[in-house]
Amino acid sequence: MINEEIQKQISKGKMLPLMEEFYTIQGEGFHTGKAAYFIRIGGCDVGCHWCDVKESWNANLHPPTNTDNIVNNVIKYANTVVVTGGEPLMWSLDFITSQLKKNNIRTHIETSGAYQLSGEWDWICLSPKKTKLPLEPIYLKTNELKVIIYNKNDFKFAVEQASKVSDTCELYLQPEWSNKEKMTPLIVDFVMKNPQWKISLQTHKYLNIP
Ligand SMILES: C[S@@+](CC[C@H](N)C(=O)[O-])C[C@H]1O[C@@H](n2cnc3c(N)ncnc32)[C@H](O)[C@@H]1O
Ligand SMILES: Nc1nc2[nH]cc(C(=O)O)c2c(=O)[nH]1
Ligand code: SF4
Ligand SMILES: [Mg+2]
What we know:
Elements: H1 4-11, E1 15-25, E2 35-41, E3 64-66, H2 67-77, E4 80-85, H3 94-102, E5 106-111, E6 123-126, E7 144-149, H4 153-162, E8 170-175, H5 180-193, E9 197-199, H6 203-207
Parallel strand pairs: 2-4, 4-5, 5-6, 6-7, 7-8, 8-9
Antiparallel strand pairs: 1-2, 1-3
Helix pairs in contact: 2-3
The structure holds S-adenosylmethionine, the ligand Nc1nc2[nH]cc(C(=O)O)c2c(=O)[nH]1, iron/sulfur cluster and magnesium ion.
Magnesium ion is lined by residues 52-53.
């Protein structure tokens, strides 16, 4: 059980249940290939059956960590941070991003959008899920829509979701990793017919880096 004081710090975003932090190369989407410091915050109840980081789901398994310490680590390594999870928007991210911005760090987030948007972001990557749809206000703030393609029905979902984002939003289809042999050829075909979309591969998995 987390004690009351820690709970209070978490609710203010002064502590966050940190699963892991690592300096790597952004493997997916628009910023693929760029160095960035990743912060993975525990906790998610969206329940994607193919999620590649199910160990993140139970927030209680990840120690409440002082946000200031996380920020100090970021500054040592990088000028760009990617906040991911788990579902990072389950937590208040206003404090961490205000500290990051004070240090001129570029702030990126990977989110399903299923919880209220907090934080100040230079780049929002929205990866919507059918099981818990994004809340409306995030769509027009999204810089990059990244829909995971696990089966054929996901193309229709992708088109529906794209109708909600701004005209300048980058559109990506990313094959679900375990079904990529089957779905990648269909994505290639779709993108050639619908060139406003691009394909995103999980390049870090090919590179064997985190
Ligand atoms: C692990 S999630 C964490 C952030 C947030 N919960 C979300 O889903 O956007 C990070 C990214 O990985 C994607 N992802 C997770 N499992 C995947 C898989 N098996 N194949 C391809 N992409 C996957 C998600 O859709 C998301 O874009
Ligand atoms: N290298 C690398 N790039 C990523 N882009 C999004 C990731 C995520 O899990 O949110 C991820 C990740 O886990 N590793
Ligand atoms: S929303 Fe993200 S972290 Fe949560 S289960 Fe789906 S892919 Fe995994
Ligand atoms: Mg990942």
